[in-house]
Specification:
Length: 505
């Protein structure tokens, strides 16, 4: 019986950057090639450990004779930049890579690097505080981070199945096409029939725009309806990225206070062009806007011609009391622009959301999106539609709500047990907002907590006047394992005690 012999594994091929060789140049062809290869070696575009293309390949690709190519390679070999390995080819000499590349012939001695500061334009509020995230939060044992999820909770099999099925007919066309500025009609249909009705919203396809997360919806709206003559009202404290997005258009940002009933509306909305708010779970306090204020805000803004931007980012997660309807679901709400997200609870990295608005506004937003990214990738759009239609989307919401309710209960119990201050537990959401003693500095607290393996989020950045509100911080509970919550709060309490802000028993 013949025994199959294993074929020797061929080395991965080196891919060179394009090389320009001109017969009209006074420089000999072989020297042009040597200089081009030398430049790529010093620039790092030629990968160490992979052989250079053979003289035969270079000859064929560049339209040069093999003698010309070999002459260039021999010069590089003589200079020590490349080495010859028997039966393997030419390789970069890694020991010489630390040297500076020689000056290219023909380069002007008066050449100066481009000063990019002349070209990069500044924007309003560029120096305002921003939300900062610990990128390696998974490396800490007690990650009370917001805006993340526990990876083991992600429905991997269901999502993989939806992605696979979306590449089979009849879905393949919609997954792969360039739709110019259209959204996947199947996803829009599922949104109108299965997702929005749960929030009390009745919408038609012409009311819908699919976005790369609700953040893109905010940006499209800001670029469409705001400029340096616009006044936009926001909650204070409030969502920091929205404040930055609006300010960068040149708009005047009016901060409105928040109390136990949600945002406190002004006496009049006259002169206010837009009003951004998070009524279901206020960001960052999680307070729910009261029914009476919802009604008065809707009526007053309708009379003044003010556009309401309703960011309903995590309304699915409520653990106490009945869910409140969206502003967009109430009567007299035609002037409300509704922002939602498919992926806030699935995985924020999927980046898929939507806007529900008047068809005329949606068409303008669609045009704005076209000249930025054209449209959201078709493959995940079709996969999301399949996942919703299969019922897996709602089952995932239900399962995630149960998991989060356990974490919410554990966190609120632990805070009550280990902190001497009163913490008002939110009725829903995925974070707990904490007000500490007046002298507490959340920035210093965050640093001290990190040393003890506890990740918290500073609260001062959510205020328009951050320096006056340094005694606030936030604990997220979506990403942390439920068994780590109580020991994490204990360690937080120890840090607070060491800093003199808390007395432990």
């Amino acid at each position: 019986m013949a025994i199959d012999q294993e074929k020797p594994e061929l080395p991965e091929q080196q891919v060179l950057a394009p090389i320009s060789i001109s017969s009209e140049s006074p420089e000999p062809l072989y020297r042009q090639l040597r200089l081009a290869l030398e430049h790529q070696i010093h620039a790092g575009t030629i990968v160490q450990g992979l052989p250079l293309p053979s003289s035969r390949e270079l000859s064929r690709e560049l339209g040069l004779s093999r003698n010309t190519v070999n002459a260039a390679l021999q010069e590089l070999l003589a200079s020590g930049l490349i080495e010859s390995h028997a039966r393997r080819g030419y390789f970069v000499n890694s020991q010489l890579l630390g040297r500076q590349p020689p000056a290219q012939e023909g380069t002007s001695r008066n050449y100066r690097p481009l000063d990019l500061r002349r070209h990069i334009k500044s924007w309003v509020a560029a120096d305002s505080p921003e939300i900062t995230k610990i990128s390696n939060w998974r490396d800490y044992p007690y990650p009370f981070v917001a805006g993340q999820v526990e990876e083991s909770d992600f429905p991997r099999l269901a999502w993989a199945r939806a992605l696979r099925d979306s590449l089979d007919p009849p879905h393949l066309h919609f997954a792969l096409r360039d739709s110019v500025d259209e959204d996947d009609p199947y996803l829009v249909e599922m949104l109108c029939q299965r997702v929005l009705p749960a929030r009390g919203i009745i919408a038609a396809p012409e009311n819908i725009l699919i976005t790369a997360g609700s953040q893109q919806g905010l940006d499209l709206l800001a670029q469409t309806i705001m400029n340096d003559e616009t006044t936009v009202a926001v909650e204070d404290p409030g969502y920091v990225d929205a404040r930055h997005t609006f300010a960068r258009t040149g708009a005047s940002v009016l901060a409105l206070p928040v109390d136990a009933q949600g945002v406190v509306p002004p006496d009049s909305f006259n002169g206010i062009d837009a009003f951004y708010l998070t009524p279901s779970h206020h960001s960052p306090t999680n307070v729910t806007l009261s029914a009476s204020r919802r009604r008065s805000i809707l009526d007053a803004t309708a009379s003044s011609g003010t556009i309401i931007i309703e960011d309903d980012y995590d309304s699915e997660f409520r653990y106490r009391g009945k869910p409140t309807p969206a502003l967009k679901a109430l009567t007299n709400s035609a002037h409300v622009v509704y922002l939602g997200s498919f992926t806030k609870f699935l995985a924020p990295g999927l980046r898929m959301g939507y806007v529900v608005a008047d068809p005329q506004l949606v068409e303008v937003l669609r045009s704005q999106r076209r000249y930025r990214i054209r449209h959201i990738a078709g493959h995940p759009q079709r996969a999301m539609a399949l996942m919703i239609d299969s019922g897996q989307y709602q089952r995932t919401i239900s399962r995630r709500r149960t998991q989060l309710q356990r974490k919410w209960s554990k966190l609120t119990e632990s805070l009550d047990a280990h902190l001497s201050w009163k913490v008002n537990a939110p009725p829903g959401g995925v974070t707990v907002w904490i007000k500490g003693p007046a002298q507490l500095d959340c920035r210093l607290l965050m640093q001290r907590c990190l040393r003890q393996g506890v990740v918290i989020e500073r609260g001062d950045v959510f205020f328009s006047n951050s320096s006056a509100h340094r005694n606030y911080f936030r604990l997220g509970f979506a990403a942390i394992n439920v068994n780590a919550i109580d020991p994490g709060v204990r360690r937080l309490a120890t840090v607070l005690n060491d800093m003199g802000y808390l007395e432990l028993d």
